[in-house]
Design goal:
- The relative contact order is 0.08.
- This protein is about 80% helix and about 0% strand.
- It contains 6 helices and no strands.
- Helix 4 packs antiparallel against helix 5.
- InterPro entries: Bact_Transport_Assoc (IPR052529).
- Keywords: Membrane, Transmembrane, Transmembrane helix.
């Protein structure tokens, strides 16, 4: 399944890297080009990004269970995997494509590790309180 998600992401990134994406969004683009970009975005881009993100979180559960089964500390195993992911993302961003997401996944993996034992209802409550806090100060923003 992860390979399928990666194939879809490669398809989308190939269009972006090749520059065909920006050609189809310009003012002089043909209607069928704009339609093709819309279809790829609606049917491919958003779906494969969502699938890849889901699989990232889902594999976290499997990795934790595997570490528990093997009697190995999960923190060290997880930190090693995230470091590898970050370095792979850094190499990819520097050598191939600056729009890399792997470094973001590595950083968010640290956040996921920190809240892995938290009560989901408590996390949702914190999110709701944070959202209300941001909304209450939106009128004070410098751009308003």
């Amino acid at each position: 399944m992860r390979g399928f998600a990666l194939l879809g992401i490669c398809l989308v990134n190939a269009m972006v890297i090749a520059g065909t994406w920006s050609l189809a969004e310009g003012a002089g683009a043909a209607p069928w080009d704009r339609t093709a970009v819309w279809l790829v975005t609606a049917l491919v881009t958003t779906k494969f990004y969502l699938l890849f993100a889901f699989l990232f979180g889902h594999s976290f559960v499997f990795q934790e269970a595997g570490a528990r089964r093997d009697g190995v500390p999960f923190a060290r195993r997880h930190a090693r995997r995230l470091l590898g992911l970050f370095l792979l993302g850094l190499a990819h961003a520097l050598l191939l494509y600056p729009g890399d997401i792997l470094m973001s996944y590595a950083v968010l993996g640290l956040v996921l590790f920190a809240v892995r034992r938290a009560d989901p209802r408590a996390l949702l409550g914190e999110h709701y309180r944070g959202e209300r806090l941001v909304d209450s100060h939106a009128d004070d923003a410098p751009w308003n």
